[in-house]
Design goal:
single chain; about 170 residues
Length: about 170
Amino acid sequence: MTSAEPPGGPFFERVLLLHRSLPPRGFHLVMLLLGLVSLAMGIGFLAIGAWPICGFFGLDVAALYLAFRLSYRSARRREVLRLAGDDFTVERVSIYGERAMWRFQPFWLRIILEERADESNRLLLASHGRSLIIGEFLGPPMRRELADSLRAALARWRAALNPASGAP
């Protein structure tokens, strides 16, 4: 039996994640600084008799905290692309942790990058009349790079199935 999978792991694997430029430690630091500034300003307004403004400072901090938490929750979303053995699988994890999996036979799998006039694009996997959009949350340059990587991995996998075809 010929296997395209090297010992110890899949032939190709890529985890697609949303990028977050502010790590959790930075988030805590920003919230601490914003809270301290709001507290100081609130005390100042309280000292001059404008006490209702203190509540608005608290609401601003709470709204910003909520926006950051929602952003970090959306970062849980990911897609795992894996070519192992005779399967190409796409596992999609939602922001709620729900998992969905699609399987494709890699020999028949086509990588389709639909370019649009407005510099955007869409990346699809297609096989036997089925198609699946992947990498929706990636930017157009990242989808182009992913399409090239997938095509190269599939070409290497197909060549590994028939080593005689690569010989001169």
